[in-house]
Design a protein that fits this description.
With about 260 residues, the chain is α/β, with parallel strands linked by helices. It folds into three domains: about 90 residues, Conserved hypothetical protein from pyrococcus furiosus pfu- 392566-001, ParB domain, CATH 3.90.1530; about 55 residues, no CATH class; about 90 residues, no CATH class. About 50% of the residues lie in helices and about 10% in strands. It is built from twelve helices and six strands.
Length: about 260
């Protein structure tokens, strides 16, 4: 007689129990739910083969194992003989319609938390890095990858984030300086400007030219108003602002770009 091991329990991002199983037959179709779209199933299969995100996107079932949301994922998992993940929720067809109507696209933060929940070390280290330095996810990626392009975010969502100790140390060094610059930002919420991608990229120009110590020294002069860093409209505005501070009291003009 064939025996199956008990479904293994996991934790979701919201600390709700998620279960893993390969006993696909225990699930039932909800009467009135949408018909299965084979094209969608095939797309899911191709996507799962490329990057299995089933653990981070569990199906939703009733306590009686009637599928409320995720029938296509279940079929795809079964076709690939992969575990399916599910959460239990008391609901009916109205809830299914509401789920499908108000489905929320995953954010980059959702992907970050999901990969951390799955134990991906690089994502765990990245989350700790941005949390410790009060950085947005976008700023953290800019500092680590020195890139702010769409392919970086696609790679991040697909689980491809990777970096070595040298890159992390460099990013941490820059983050420390960004923290020091907040003291000189004239804004009620200096953290917002310090995380502005234009501000960050402009400061990277200063950092890469080894001018950070000079910038901080000039900012500390009493001859400069207490908070000379103000909100700008774009990258060039922040670069020119840093140039003005670097050139205070100097005959030799420093140009960053």
């Amino acid at each position: 007689m064939k025996t199956t091991k008990p479904d293994q329990e996991y934790e979701t991002l919201s600390n709700q129990p998620v279960f893993e199983t390969t006993d696909y037959g225990q699930f039932k179709t909800l009467l009135g739910n949408r018909a299965v779209n084979n094209t969608h199933v095939n797309k899911l299969i191709a996507s799962i083969i490329k990057q299995n995100m089933l653990a981070g996107n569990p199906i939703i079932v009733t306590p009686d194992k009637v599928i409320l949301d995720g029938q296509h994922r279940l079929i795809a998992a079964k076709a690939l003989k992969l575990p399916v993940y599910y959460v239990q929720f008391k609901g009916d067809l109205t809830d299914v319609q509401l789920l499908n109507t108000n489905a929320k696209t995953w954010t980059s933060r959702d992907y970050l938390d999901s990969y951390c929940a799955l134990g991906r070390l690089s994502y765990i280290q990245f989350r700790a890095f941005i949390t410790e330095n009060d950085l947005t996810l976008q700023t953290g990626l800019i500092l680590l990858t020195r890139n702010n392009s769409a392919p970086i975010y696609r790679l991040f969502r697909e689980g491809g984030l990777g970096f070595d100790g040298t890159e992390l140390n460099r990013a941490s060094d820059i983050a420390k300086y960004l923290g020091e610059l907040r003291e000189y930002i004239a804004d009620e919420s200096p953290g917002i400007i310090a995380n502005n991608p234009y501000f960050v990229r402009a400061f990277l120009v200063v950092y890469n030219k080894d001018l950070t110590p000079i910038l901080l020294k000039k900012l500390s002069y009493k001859t400069i108003k207490d908070k000379p860093l103000v909100r700008q409209g774009g990258l060039l505005g922040y670069i020119r602002q840093f140039e003005d501070i670097l050139n205070r009291g100097d005959r030799n003009i420093t140009r960053l770009v």
